[in-house]
Write a structure and sequence with these properties.
The chain has helices spanning 48-54, 120-124, 127-140, 157-168, 180-188, 202-209, 225-229, 255-260, 275-294, 311-319, and strands spanning 7-14, 21-28, 36-46, 71-79, 90-94, 103-107, 111-113, 148-151, 172-177, 193-196, 214-219, 233-241, 264-267, 302-307, 326-330. By secondary structure, it is an alpha/beta fold. The protein has 2 domains: 7-126 and 271-330, Medium-chain alcohol dehydrogenases, catalytic domain (Quinone Oxidoreductase, Chain A, domain 1, Alpha-Beta Complex); 129-267, 3-Layer(aba) Sandwich (Rossmann fold). Strands 3, 4, 5, 6, 7, 14 and 15 form a 7-stranded mixed beta sheet that branches. Strands 10-9-8-11-12-13 form a 6-stranded parallel beta sheet, with helices on both faces. α5 (180-188) links the parallel β9 and β10 (193-196). α3 (127-140) crosses α4 (157-168). The two termini are 19 Å apart. It comes from Rheinheimera muenzenbergensis. Keywords: NADP, Oxidoreductase. Pfam families: ADH_N (PF08240), ADH_zinc_N (PF00107).
């Protein structure tokens, strides 16, 4: 193994808030504890959580790195004593922070081997979106073959992953997105019904197309969407909220409609889950879909790669809400 330096380059946030800036600075290379791997980062996925963190709205859990970046792909260069078998191997997976740097720590239970034929950029675009989608659809949503699911932001990273997993599970999939180009991508991935929310009221169109109701709704919008979604639910249906892009407050929510359907409104996060939870989630995903991922029957949708020094440009592109799939930084 090559000698590990003591210092590394990292992208850090200055003046967190609406006027935040990204800067490169020297940081000490972190040292893995008994349960961690040290990854020489080749690529890091960009997530909307990164944009929220630099605005001061999504601080890292106590004790975790303040450096942005929640998923990486790279080579294991150091490991805890029980995990030496990972040394020298190409892995990808979730990290609790620190991904926008030359070296990052990963819990050994969160590491997945990069499938043959995948670039590091493709691998770095996979963990966060597929594990989030798997958690929502399977762990929480308990989606079954033949059921119907509505996926908002269908062309997003999580949306494109969720379409593929839902179809693999045998579900019928409806999506919403903001442009015909995005909807075409969703349809190509298997979506059965694609709705442009600028051109129609999604709840009216869906009620007409699927009068029997929807079993599961994946919602990163929240706000007034919730009141519009409840009447769409089939009996015992679930709305899973995993972001609040439309606002944190719900105006005039009538719970009677939710009770009538025995509906559930569930808020979900992934970053602040325990290491054990993330390990179990990672292992369950690999058991269920690892072969499909390796064979590219399911795959990340990678829109663009940026050199890591172009992180600001990548963030601006994501903030414009025009992206399809994932953006990745390469080192």
């Amino acid at each position: 193994m090559a000698t590990i330096p003591t210092m590394m380059q990292a992208i850090v946030v200055k003046h967190a808030g609406k006027d935040s800036q990204l800067h490169t600075e020297q940081r000490t290379v972190p040292q893995p504890n008994a349960e961690q791997l040290l990854i020489k980062v080749a690529a890091a996925g960009i997530n909307r959580a990164d944009l929220m963190q630099r605005r001061g709205l999504y601080p890292p859990p106590q004790g975790d790195s303040d450096i942005l970046g929640l998923e990486v792909a790279g080579i294991v260069v150091a490991a805890g004593p029980q995990h030496k078998s990972w040394l020298g191997k190409a892995v990808f997976g979730l990290v609790p922070g620190g991904g926008y740097a030359e070296y990052a720590l990963m819990h050994a239970g969160h590491a997945m081997a990069v499938p043959h034929g995948y670039s590091m950029a493709e691998a770095a675009a996979t963990a966060e979106v597929f594990l989030t989608a798997y958690q929502l659809l399977c762990s929480l949503g308990e989606l079954q073959s033949g059921q119907q699911v509505l996926i908002h932001a269908g062309a997003s990273g999580v949306g494109t992953a969720a379409i593929q997993l839902a179809k693999a599970l045998g579900a019928k999939v409806a999506v919403t997105a903001s442009s015909d180009e995005k909807l075409q991508v969703c349809t190509a991935l298997g979506a059965d019904l694609a709705l442009n929310y600028y051109h129609c009221a999604f709840e009216q169109q869906l009620a007409q197309q699927w009068p029997e109701g929807v079993n599961l709704i994946l919602d990163p919008v929240a706000g007034d969407y919730i009141s519009r979604e409840i009447p769409l639910l089939a009996q015992d249906g679930k709305i899973l909220l995993y972001a609040m892009m439309g606002g944190r407050e719900v105006p005039q929510l009538d719970l009677a409609a939710l009770f009538k359907r025995r509906g559930q409104l569930i808020c979900s996060t992934l970053r602040n889950r325990s290491n054990r939870y993330k390990t179990n989630l990672t292992q369950a995903f690999v058991a269920a879909f690892g072969a499909s991922l390796a064979q590219k029957r399911i795959r990340p949708i990678l829109q663009q790669q940026f050199n890591w020094q172009q992180a600001e440009q990548a963030h601006q592109l994501m903030a414009g809400n025009t992206t399809i799939g994932k953006l990745v930084l390469t080192f």
